[in-house]
Task: inverse folding
């Protein structure tokens, strides 16, 4: 068993990185984040308004993300969703993100697997009042549109979809999960 741990330590990051290669890209030219992020204002509860589908969120509805600043350069992440319906079984995953240096706090590395900070989390754009946020990563295969309200107004929904399109994302692939 002792000899297995170093092998697992080496192979797990490679396997997780390979998983990202199988997610199709719907934006071949992902832009760098537009604005810096104030982590204390970004903290709190966010509702998933729309996303690109992914294997780890398939059949996930009523999804939320809760962020809490731990230090000036790290945040706690708690992602919650319900399977198949807003009253379905709850699934929760906890993680931590660290700020990429010189990114204005807009690019983070996320880990849900202990010390392996391999996931990219880029806040591509956000409202000045932090009422919405568009999150992606460099491959263009993952995208999330987050709002502070579970049911944003029609004008805000249309504005977010237009902004995502302006950032180069193919809006035909957006999934709009049910919220509570």
Result:
């Amino acid at each position: 068993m002792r000899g297995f741990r170093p092998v697992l330590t080496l192979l797990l990051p490679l396997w997780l990185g390979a998983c990202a290669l199988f997610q199709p890209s719907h934006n071949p030219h992902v832009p760098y984040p537009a604005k810096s992020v104030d982590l204390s204002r970004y903290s709190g509860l966010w509702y998933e308004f729309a996303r690109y589908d992914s294997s780890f969120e398939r059949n996930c509805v009523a999804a939320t993300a809760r962020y809490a600043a731990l230090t000036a350069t790290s945040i706690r992440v708690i992602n919650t969703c319900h399977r198949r319906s807003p009253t379905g079984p709850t699934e929760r995953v906890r993680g931590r993100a660290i700020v990429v240096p010189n990114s204005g706090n807009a690019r983070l590395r996320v880990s849900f697997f202990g010390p392996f900070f391999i996931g990219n989390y880029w806040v591509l754009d956000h409202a000045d009042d932090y009422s919405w946020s568009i999150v992606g990563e460099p491959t263009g295969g993952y995208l999330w549109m987050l709002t502070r309200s579970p049911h944003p107004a029609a004008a805000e929904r249309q504005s977010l979809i237009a902004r995502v399109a302006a950032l180069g994302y193919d809006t035909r692939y957006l999934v709009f999960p049910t919220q509570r």
Observations:
- The radius of gyration is 16 Å.
- Helices lie at 4-21, 39-42, 154-166.
